[in-house]
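Internal tracking record. Fields below are filled automatically when a chain is submitted to the structure queue. Please do not edit lines marked as system-generated. If the sequence contains nonstandard residues, flag them in the REMARKS field before resubmitting.
Queue: standard
Priority: normal
Entity type: single polypeptide chain
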Amino acid sequence: MLNLISIALGVAYFAGMESSSWQGTLGKKVCGLIVVDANGNRISFLRAVGRYFAKILSALILLIGFIMVAFTDKKQGLHDMLAGTLVLKGQPGGHGTRGVFD
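SYSTEM-GENERATED OUTPUT FOLLOWS
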């Protein structure tokens, strides 16, 4: 039962914050980072839930899903690739990806 509560709290916090107008968790906010979709728009709650569970997969495979960030062009981890998201430096709101990866 405790595991289910832990997962529910994790989903509520991570998916809730990343799909909110803040576009990221408190830590991302402090670092000036936002989570966006491939077009630079705010992600939906369902996409954020998918990203949360994909992070668990990234961790289960010896953290390789997180280490991938250092080696991909768009600095995406496995969880970002699976969810179709990007983590960018910027402020929440109208933030497109045009020119970011050109």
